Amino acid sequence: MRSATGWERTQVAQSDPECLFCKIVVGEVPAEIVREGERTVAFRDINPQAPTHVLVIPREHHPDVAAAARAGTGLVDELAREAQEVARGEGIGSDYRLVFNTGTGAGQTVFHVHAHLLGGRGMEWPPG
């Protein structure tokens, strides 16, 4: 729901009261929000790995990108679209990396699907 000052923070239908990112969505935990949409929230990573490092998350809770894709609601597409809008707003245009870590072995530490938008410098390959 949109208010005069932006998106109101409200409980979402599918959330986990113990999840850090769900708490950010409802405003219980502060974050530097850079963009909000009806289904998404984008905020700066607290441990940036590039000049621009923004996390794009859905308002609803899914533990990882595979679970979000299985839900079949177009959420992964929405995350990618929102990441593109954030990149444009951050002035990095179409030169960015979008990363989903899935599982502890891949470095996922918060089990709420999130896309890492990285940019503002050259990206080497292969990554770390």
Automatic annotation (TrEMBL):
Motif segment (Histidine triad motif) = 112-116
Identify the residues that the record assigns to the HIT domain, covering every copy. 20-128
> Pfam families under this entry?
HIT (PF01230)
Q: Which residues form a coiled coil?
A: none
Transmembrane spans: none
Question: InterPro entries, from UniProt?
Answer: Histidine_triad_HIT, HIT-like, HIT-like_sf
Gene3D superfamilies found in the cross-reference section = HIT-like (3.30.428.10)
PROSITE patterns attached here?
HIT_2
Check the record and name the PANTHER family matching this protein.
HISTIDINE TRIAD HIT PROTEIN (PTHR23089)
Q: What is this protein called?
A: Histidine triad nucleotide-binding protein
In which organism is this protein found? Nocardiopsis suaedae
